[in-house]
Write a structure and sequence with these properties.
Layout: H1 3-6, H2 17-23, E1 31-40, E2 43-50, E3 53-60, E4 78-82, E5 87-91, E6 97-101, E7 109-114, E8 118-124, H3 131-144, E9 147-153, H4 161-173, E10 179-182, H5 191-198, E11 202-206, H6 213-221, E12 246-249, E13 255-258, H7 271-277, H8 279-285, H9 302-308, H10 314-334, H11 336-363
Parallel strand pairs: 8-9, 8-11, 9-10, 11-13
Antiparallel strand pairs: 1-2, 1-4, 2-3, 4-5, 6-7, 12-13
Length: 365
């Protein structure tokens, strides 16, 4: 980072030479760079430089409104904002984007946060650990381009140290390449280690309602910036205490994007994310007899062999298959070319099945 960028008032919010280069063609009278803190109903709150400090401004988003859900501005975006007219003029190119599929029948993607360095996946230990959900979040995190970090929250509710150690180990086995931390926002356990990981960058905090994200956000920022409500005792679920995505400055430098609890996290074009989240299966697949092995019933499949001899847990293989099927299906709904290929493959299999049935009938005469 150049001296000018490092001394820029927005450097604590992630401003650097790369974003400065992206902004250069957009400069003009009254136009300044700003980072979007929150988006709400056609307007957004941005933080912009103000002398040696920063200030918040509200701007209209009408000039950059688009029908493409993947190009709608979101928290974490950098923008060129015209202070004279009060409009956002343009968005700077994104480095990373955390995207999930929406629940709509139109199979659209939704960007939850942009320009993120760390994707913090909060998982509550107040309820039974769901490793399949962890793997789903990790898949989207790896696909986003951010570095995932799994945080097992409410560690103070696990009374035995050996039990907590087992939970961490099980999560680490399901999260190859990602760091796993057990934390308690109530007691402070693990919070310093987490804060050190996030210092100086942009992190997004993700998880279901009741995972303790708001309490953790308050602990990390050092102030009560988010309302906290108790989770239900029967299932550990909480109400949406965070209703918008907010960008919050961290005391040690960097920013944290807190998000509402996510009821669903559908995959969206996450082929690379699946491969990264299940890196050990991808490594085993390199030794399969066929390069396009589906790891189902093919002869010479190294993945199936590893599952048979216990090297690969069957749960991991089942989870991998589930996410691959879901991602393929989602891609088929959004990609006309792939839809045609799948239909052609289905027809070929149907024709082959009919031929085999006819041969059997003929051979039985």
């Amino acid at each position: 980072m150049s001296e000018n960028s490092s001394a820029h008032p927005l450097s604590a919010y992630g401003w650097d030479d790369g974003f400065a280069d992206g902004f250069a063609p957009l400069t003009g009278p009254g136009v300044v760079p700003g980072r979007i803190v929150r988006v709400d109903r056609g307007r957004c709150d941005l933080v912009v430089a103000d002398g040696d400090g920063v200030r918040h401004v509200m701007a209209d988003t009408a000039l950059v409104t688009t029908g493409d859900p993947l190009n709608i501005m979101c928290t974490g975006d950098w923008a060129a904002v015209d202070l004279e007219t009060g409009y956002v003029r343009a968005l700077l190119p994104r480095r990373t984007a955390f995207v999930r599929s929406t629940s709509s029948k139109r199979s659209e993607g939704q960007v939850l946060a942009a320009n993120v360095d760390h994707a913090v996946i909060a998982v509550s230990l107040a309820v039974e650990l769901n490793l399949g959900r962890v793997e789903r979040f990790l898949t989207l995190a790896w696909e986003s381009g951010a570095t995932p970090l799994v945080v097992l929250t409410k560690a103070d509710l696990v009374p035995r140290a050996d039990t907590l150690a087992h939970l961490v180990a099980d999560t680490e086995a399901a999260a190859p390449g990602a760091r796993v931390l057990a934390v308690s926002a109530e007691t402070g356990q693990g919070v310093d280690a987490l804060a050190a990981e996030l210092a100086g960058g942009t992190a997004v905090l993700l998880g279901q309602s009741g995972a303790g994200k708001s309490t953790l956000a308050n602990r990390l920022t050092g102030q009560d910036v988010q309302v906290v409500q108790a989770a239900r005792d029967r299932d550990g679920k909480g109400r949406h205490t965070t209703t918008t995505r907010n960008l919050l400055p961290l005391p040690g430098g960097g920013v944290l994007i807190d998000t509402p609890g996510l009821r669903g996290v559908g995959l969206w074009d996450a082929e690379r994310g699946v491969a990264q989240a299940f890196a050990e299966i991808e490594a085993l697949a390199a030794d399969c007899r066929f390069h396009d092995c589906g790891h189902d019933s093919e002869p010479g499949c190294a993945v199936l062999a590893a599952a048979d001899n216990g090297e690969l847990p069957q749960r991991r293989l089942d989870s991998y298959r589930k996410l691959v099927r879901e991602n393929t299906w989602m891609a088929s709904r959004s990609d006309a070319r792939l839809r045609a290929e799948i239909r052609r493959d289905w027809k070929q299999k149907q024709m082959a099945g009919r031929r085999m049935a006819e041969q059997k009938r003929g051979g039985g005469r």
